[in-house]
Every structure is written in C-alpha cells, then in structure tokens.
C-alpha cells in the first residue's frame, strides 16, 4: 500500500502524513493528520526574531531544541533531519527559511514548486 513501507526515494504521501508523527515534532499536525494553523503560526511568533516571516539558522536551532522531548533520541534525530534538510534545500540568498516555504512543505506543494522553479531556470 502506498506510503506504508520504507522507500529509498523518500516519497511524501500527504494523505498518510499522520503516520509520520514522531516524538519531538512541531505539533503542526495533530494525531489524526489535521493541520493545526495555530501551532504553525506559533513557530514564527516564537522563533522568527529578526524577520517575522522567516527563520534564521539560529532561530531554527532554538525551535528544534525547544521541541525536544526528554530521552527521545529518535525523535530528536527525525526532527533535526527533516528541518535541517528543509533549511539547506530551501533557504533564500539571505539564509532565511521563509514562512510560505515551510507552509508549502506542510501542505505538500513545495516539491512541485521547486520542480517548476528548476524548469523555469532551464528555459531561461
């Protein structure tokens, strides 16, 4: 069944996103897989200090540290890997991870957006 087994291609199956919950996560999805807007906004209210709609590397690190559950090493690693990869792939020229990019990662539209941007650059 799609999204039930491990794949080296790391597909994101949005309809099964609730199965990817782990400890030390952001809480942006609840246990039933529903997006929780207040939790999403809270990330930027608390950790986007220099730019209200973007995370710096330092802000991201503080966010990750604050979400750690005690002795949840697997959850720490999962969160660190997810967020740091998002930051490395999607930060802008000022090393900022914009709020709309993070939202696109959560709603599943980010990779389509990235593919379209890459295609546009090829044509230019």
What does this structure look like?
Belongs to the caleosin family. The protein is mainly α and 124 residues long. It is 50% helix and 3% strand. The chain has one domain. A two-stranded antiparallel ribbon has the order 1-2.
SSE blueprint:
Layout: H1 37-47, E1 54-55, H2 57-66, H3 73-90, E2 97-98, H4 99-107, H5 110-123
Antiparallel strand pairs: 1-2
Keyphrases for this structure?
two-stranded antiparallel ribbon, globular, 50% helix, 124 residues, mainly alpha, single chain, 3% strand, 5 helices
> Strands across the major sheet, in which order?
1-2
Question: From N to C, what is the helix and strand string?
Answer: HEHHEHH
Number of helices: 5
How large is the radius of gyration? 15 Å
Number of domains: 1
Distance between the termini: 40 Å
* Stretches with pLDDT under 50, minimum 5 residues: none
Q: What is the average per-residue confidence, as pLDDT, rounded to a whole number?
A: 86
Alpha-beta content class: mainly alpha
The helix content, as a percent range, equals 40-55%
Count of DSSP E strands? 2
The biggest beta sheet, please?
Answer: 2 strands, antiparallel
Beta-strand content bin: under 5%
GO molecular function: calcium ion binding; monooxygenase activity
InterPro entries: Caleosin-related (IPR007736)
Protein name: Probable peroxygenase 4 isoform X2
Pfam families: Caleosin (PF05042)
Short précis:
With 124 residues, the protein is mostly helical. The protein is 50% helix and 3% strand.
């Amino acid at each position: 069944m799609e999204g039930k087994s491990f794949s080296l291609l790391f597909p994101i199956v949005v309809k099964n996103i609730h199965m990817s919950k782990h400890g030390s996560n952001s809480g942006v999805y609840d246990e039933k897989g529903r997006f929780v807007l207040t939790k999403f906004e809270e990330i930027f209210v608390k950790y986007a200090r220099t730019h209200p709609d973007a995370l710096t590397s330092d802000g991201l690190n503080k966010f990750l540290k604050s979400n750690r559950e005690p002795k949840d090493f697997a959850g720490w690693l999962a969160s660190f890997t997810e967020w740091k990869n998002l930051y490395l792939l999607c930060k802008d020229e000022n090393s900022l991870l914009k709020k709309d990019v993070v939202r696109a990662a959560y709603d599943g539209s980010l990779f389509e957006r990235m593919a379209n941007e890459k295609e546009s650059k090829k044509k230019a």
